[in-house]
Amino acid sequence: MTEELTKMVAEARPYAERGKVADYIPALQKSNASDLSVSIFNVNGHDYHAGDYLKKFTLQSISKVIALALVLMDSGPEKVFAKVGMEPTGDSFNSIAKLETMKPSKPLNPMINAGALTVTEMIKGNSSTEKWTRLIEFTAKLTNDETVTYNASVAQSEFDTAFLNRSLCYFLKQHGIITGDVEELMDLYTKQCAIEMNCSELARIGAVFAMDGCDPLTGKQTIPKDIARICKTYMVTCGMYNASGEFAMKVGIPAKSGVSGGIMGAVPNRCGIGIFGPALDHKGNSIAGLKLLEMMSNRYGFSIF
Ligand code: GLU
């Protein structure tokens, strides 16, 4: 399998030339556009890799799935669904448009920024520091790596420039969806997005979701089954931005991407996938990563449909 993956990476890598690394978060501009790597973590414990799979990258929007799982565990689906909806938007991830036209004015889902900011504020804790500690400890549990942390310069770079996200927060605050201090939330959210890991660790988290929340190595139920199911459903309907429909057609697995070029995939009862390829298409998905996933899905019959 490793040999096959290496070949597929070589075949998909040239697609990166058609994409561009994210530049609206200044620190992400430093990424190497031609990077492409993948890890597959089989639920039987075997893992396979190709490319520079130990290179670390920030999770960005992939972290939204982790925060969502934690908040669903903290407060239960009812409280979460009272503040965020269940529908894809068809708009870009940081759009404010639907917030103004929808009544009531609540984010359509937790995978767009408005919904993710709402969810992050809901993490239980008496202070921002406590919320952060709980989030990073939960992430460590999922990766089985206690040293997992965030990239401080990427977090700072986003914090310094996140005017659009601040606008979303103030809009949501006006409508009572967000209630606390916006700067504190931005600090927590930018740290969350800057959580850093490699493809191998990301694939391991994907494998937990693939097993309905059960850690394939320890056998522990890290996330309750019904909550893992909610997260995977959102990954299918809105995980790949407003390209989720095309992705379901071509690849057909629950997945979440981030503007750093990361993609986490979960193939039910089979494996977790971690991909890193920072050159993005115009919707914000890793362009070579998508090609690679399409090849893998065709070759290994990953589609759930
Ligand atoms: N930190 C990024 C933002 O909020 C995450 C976006 C993404 O990866 O889609 O803009």
TrEMBL record:
<feature type="binding site">
    <location>
        <position position="241"/>
    </location>
    <ligand>
        <name>substrate</name>
    </ligand>
</feature>
<protein>
    <recommendedName>
        <fullName>Glutaminase</fullName>
        <ecNumber>3.5.1.2</ecNumber>
    </recommendedName>
</protein>
<feature type="binding site">
    <location>
        <position position="113"/>
    </location>
    <ligand>
        <name>substrate</name>
    </ligand>
</feature>
<feature type="binding site">
    <location>
        <position position="158"/>
    </location>
    <ligand>
        <name>substrate</name>
    </ligand>
</feature>
<comment type="subunit">
    <text>Homotetramer.</text>
</comment>
<dbReference type="Pfam" id="PF04960">
    <property type="entry name" value="Glutaminase"/>
</dbReference>
<feature type="binding site">
    <location>
        <position position="165"/>
    </location>
    <ligand>
        <name>substrate</name>
    </ligand>
</feature>
<dbReference type="GO" id="GO:0004359">
    <property type="term" value="F:glutaminase activity"/>
</dbReference>
<feature type="binding site">
    <location>
        <position position="259"/>
    </location>
    <ligand>
        <name>substrate</name>
    </ligand>
</feature>
<comment type="similarity">
    <text>Belongs to the glutaminase family.</text>
</comment>
<feature type="binding site">
    <location>
        <position position="61"/>
    </location>
    <ligand>
        <name>substrate</name>
    </ligand>
</feature>
<keyword id="KW-0378">Hydrolase</keyword>
<feature type="binding site">
    <location>
        <position position="189"/>
    </location>
    <ligand>
        <name>substrate</name>
    </ligand>
</feature>
<dbReference type="InterPro" id="IPR015868">
    <property type="entry name" value="Glutaminase"/>
</dbReference>
<dbReference type="InterPro" id="IPR012338">
    <property type="entry name" value="Beta-lactam/transpept-like"/>
</dbReference>
<keyword id="KW-0007">Acetylation</keyword>
